[in-house]
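Sequence and structure are kept together here, with a separate record for every protein. A complete record is shown below as an example:
=====
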Amino acid sequence: MSGHSKWSTIKRKKGALDAKKGAEFTKLARLIEVAAKAGADPAMNFRLKLAIQKAKAANMPSANIDKAIRKGAGLDKDKSSIEEITYEGLAPGGVAVIVQALTDNKNRTVSDLRNLFSKFGGSLGNSGSVAWQFVSRGILTVAKTDPDLELKAIEAGAIDIQDQGDVWDIHTNPIDLNQVKQALVSVGITVQEDKLALVPTTLISITDPNLARKLLQFMDALEENEDVAEVFSNFDIDDNILQSLE
């Protein structure tokens, strides 16, 4: 599977973090809150551990992280009202999109998303309408510094390795993510990022620059919505087109 220009890679190349730290911290707090509902101890709650790692990487203050954990775990009077909801739809060009939202107002979120899909020529679908085109994976991002990385990754339990240009993405079964990470670290591999993600099983190649531009604008608009935590898609844009758009 060519993943060279998938949305996750494009975001990494663009450095597409929220421009406003306040908005970024709000999203991260919600992510921690939802994860902490399964337990406040990151040693026993791997999803919470990942959320905390992400927050620390964004320089979120420890006090904010602790507050979100307590709120999500129900340890404070002010308990979390955040719900995790997944939306599915089609973007322009028949591209499949899955949006993972963290919201305290489902009506607002679905209305905002429906309007965004419609504005860019897409449509919000029903549950299951595009999810069959994705699989759940753990992803470890590592630099291309070790010539034996592929062998070491396979020995560690990886199920796929993808070339993302300047880095490798090592895919695992979701439940094996931490185990594979620790195995790689033990043989001297530095993991730049570890996360859980939805990976497309097939990609739609985008060759029209105008459609490519529209898709990127649409994805940016989704990412900027305050309720949106993650966006996954199955489009693949050629590097030459990306460079022309830049």
